[in-house]
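Justification of resources, computational component.

The compute hours requested in this renewal are based largely on the per-chain cost of generating structure records like the one below. Each record pairs the submitted sequence with a full C-alpha cell output. That output is archived, and it is also reused by downstream analysis tasks.
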Amino acid sequence: MTTLITGGASQTGLALAALLQTEGIPVLFGSRSGRGVPAGIPSVKLDFTDPSTFEAPFSVEGHKINSVYLVFAEFDPFPFAKPFIDLAVEKGVGRFVILSAGGRRTEKGPDSIGMGKVHTYLDEKGLDYVSLRPIWFTENLSRNYGYGIKQYNSFQNTMSKARVPLIAVEDIAQAAFYAITDISKLPNREPILVGPELVSYPEIAAILTETLGRQITHITISQDELVKKYQTYGIPDALARYLAEIEGEEEAMGVGEALMKDPRTLVGKLGVRDWIVKHKEEFAPA
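The structure output for this chain reads:
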C-alpha cells in the first residue's frame, strides 16, 4: 500500500519519503512541477489549483494509495483541499496526514484559518487523520536568513527577546512517519511539534558566531519592515502580514515557551546548536 506525498519535493516530504523507503513502504510523489523529486521515486503531476490533475495519483499502475501526506503552498488551501480529499476518500484512502502549523489561529474549529480549515474539515467528516502542527522550522535559519548571514554576517527579524523551540525538518518527518505507520507513538492526532530547547535569536547569533568562526549579528526590525521584506520575496500581502503578526505574538506573549508546557506537544530531538554544526557549510561566505 502506497503513501502519496503531495507538495512536490518539500523538505519534510523528502525526509518522510526516505524514512518510508527504509521500511519498504512504497512512495508516490504528487508534484506541480516535478522538480526536485528524487531519482527512482515515481511521481505524477498534481496541482491543487488544477482539479483536472486530481485523478492522476490514483491511476498509477501498481500503486494503491492508502495514506496521503498533504502539504500546501497556498495560504488558504481549503478550496483546493476539500475536493481532493473528497476524491481521495472515494478512491479508498484511509488516512490523511496534514502539515499544518502550531499557532492558535490554526486550532481546529470554526474560527480556524489557513491549514486549520483543512483539518477542521477532516474532523467534521469523521475521517482518519493526523494534523502535524510544527512551530518555526530550524531550517528557516538557512532558508530565510542564510543570504544575510553569508553576505553581511547578519540576519533580521522582529524577535529580540522571544525564546523559541525551533523544530528540525527531520523531527517533523519522524512525526509524519509515525502518523502513517504507528499513530500510537504520537501524543494525539493534532500534535504540536517543537524542538528540545528554547533559544532566542541573539543566542542563535552567538551559536553561529562560535560555530562559523566569524561574528554574526542579529538585528531587530519593526513589524512593518518585516512585512516589506517578505513582500520583496514575492510572498502575498496577506501571508506576509500573517507571518509578521505571528512573530509579534511570539515576542510579546512568549508563545513558544507556553507550547513547551502544552500536553499536546511532541518534542523533537535535534537542537539548534547541533543543527547548525551539521549544516554550517550552508552559511559559508558567498
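The chain has two domains: 2-134, 140-165+195-260+268-283. The domain at 140-165+195-260+268-283 is CATH 3.90.25.10 (UDP-galactose 4-epimerase; domain 1).
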